[in-house]
UniProtKB/TrEMBL annotation, chains A, B:
Residues 30-49 bind DNA. GO terms for molecular function: DNA binding. The keyword Zinc-finger does not apply. Pfam families: TetR_N. Keywords: DNA-binding. PANTHER family: HTH-TYPE TRANSCRIPTIONAL REPRESSOR SCO4008 (PTHR30328:SF54), TRANSCRIPTIONAL REPRESSOR (PTHR30328). This is TetR/AcrR family transcriptional regulator. It comes from Pontimicrobium aquaticum. The keyword DNA-binding applies. Residues 7-67 form the HTH tetR-type domain.
Amino acid sequence: MTKTRDENTEGQILNAAKSIFQSKGMDGARMQEIADKAGINKAMLHYYFRSKQLLFEAVFKNAFSLLAPQLNAILNDDSTIEDKIKNFTSNYISFIIKHPYLPNFIIQELNRNQDFILKIKDNKGFPNLEKFKKQVDEEANKGIIKPISGEQLFINILALNIFPFVAKPLVMAFANVSDKAYKQLMENRKTEVANFIINAIKHT
Amino acid sequence: MTKTRDENTEGQILNAAKSIFQSKGMDGARMQEIADKAGINKAMLHYYFRSKQLLFEAVFKNAFSLLAPQLNAILNDDSTIEDKIKNFTSNYISFIIKHPYLPNFIIQELNRNQDFILKIKDNKGFPNLEKFKKQVDEEANKGIIKPISGEQLFINILALNIFPFVAKPLVMAFANVSDKAYKQLMENRKTEVANFIINAIKHT
DNA sequence: ACATTTGTTAACCAAATGGTTAAACTAAAT
DNA sequence: ATTTAGTTTAACCATTTGGTTAACAAATGT
């Protein structure tokens, strides 16, 4: 049997690095802290990943590869726009609840270093909007949904699903709710967001 | 005549610090870089603001005080929900186009340090949702809009307006558009977003 | 059994970084 | 003219930080 990720050193490092990088970002993270969390000597980080930058990139690519398939699902399957929105919203919010730091981490680090996007963009499996756009146009032509540009609809879907997690502290302060109440709000959004979007675009 | 902000040293420091902090974050910013940008000696930063932390807080509060009034407008004036959404969306997107780093900066640093929110929350002028929530309930009862919780509608409005700026590099990569095309997308959103929200909530 | 490769550690290093100090400069007050 | 208070600078300092090294241990192959 092959060793699980937290049994071999490389995996321990990745786990620890993920945790530290995701909560403190590249600049705020300390190699020593990662080593401590992994329960190993700092030199091991460099033995396995050579530099902070490369360790970070390993963590980042890993994180991104969790996010991408979720998006491809909505973009490339064959269900109707309405079904896609329902499925995506529910699945995606469930997914982020399990990985709350993830969207913020990715967005934050992409803002810090635009070059990252290039390193991932040519990966196969990088989300592509073409099919989705065509489908939106078709359904609009058939009168199933109101006319809207595929890009704008896509941005709106992402925004409504992701933003509340990215801006959690801000929204919590404005709405003046506890952590528990916020969690409930997010739970409700699994269906509310889909209804909201569908109301916005369906033809009456 | 009183000296303008970039004529006196303190103002120069604040301008430089704002620029550096907003693009690199607290952890990524270097005091020397701020001093260089302000064209002064590093010791001056400490002379005027004592520490990096305090300089950062000055910049942060400043940034936040730009954002808050925009929100209060939608929350506390007396127009209908529909008008509020229209006005807010158009104004807010125009505002962010002028200060593109701002939302990301605030969100990012609030995620890094939850304590910040407490330091600002008791400021007068901190946005409060109560009136808005009441109004949403009223219009829902009158049948003007579909039933929706005030919090959820507020989150949706923020999400649709702010997210595209916060996640710009990510969305640009997914939608595969140039900087110029992205700018145009944002320009279009000034009206599109309002229509989208209103379609989602208005009673038919 | 022995040699070689792989994994691990403690000690170390140079550079960077936030912060301090003491002296010098400036301009207004006496 | 001299004092005084505020402003500015260059040099300095202690600590932190990413990264290296050399020695040691544990597998692995022969």
